[in-house]
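User: Please fill in residues for this 140-position structure.
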């Protein structure tokens, strides 16, 4: 059962990360679209569907299965796991921030620049790299 759960966890993480990397990129292009234009309305649909159909469910599965794996593998006392957990909490906070941006774009209330979204696009990448290193290398 543990190996199947681990496979499901990896699939969910990949799905979550794909969405977390794509959504800010959509925002970069959405910033350039004129409010009320067909292009802007299309971006709103894409952003909402990506969040609701992929990112949110993938995050939920990642957390649920990940906590099961930590419990079943007795990882709660491992130092590397504490670091991973902190980084996953940070990733979840970024997820929440991106969700708020989807709502702002939906209401035509975006106040952030294209540059802001280009920078934010890198945050999930850095977090993902650190998480993978902790899980694979287990440096402490």
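Assistant: Residues filled in for all 140 positions:
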């Amino acid at each position: 059962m543990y190996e199947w759960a681990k496979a499901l966890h990896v699939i969910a993480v990949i799905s979550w990360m794909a969405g977390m990397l794509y959504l800010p990129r959509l925002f970069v292009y959405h910033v350039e679209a004129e409010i009320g234009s067909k292009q802007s309305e299309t971006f709103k649909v894409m952003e909402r569907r990506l969040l609701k159909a992929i990112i949110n469910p993938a995050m939920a599965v990642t957390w649920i299965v990940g906590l099961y794996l930590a419990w079943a593998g007795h990882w709660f006392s491992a130092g590397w796991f504490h670091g991973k957990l902190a980084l996953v909490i940070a990733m979840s906070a970024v997820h929440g921030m991106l969700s708020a941006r989807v709502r702002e774009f939906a209401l035509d209330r975006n106040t952030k620049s294209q540059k802001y979204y280009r920078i934010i696009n890198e945050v999930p990448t850095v977090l993902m790299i650190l998480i993978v290193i902790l899980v694979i290398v287990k440096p402490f």
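For context: The mean pLDDT is 97.
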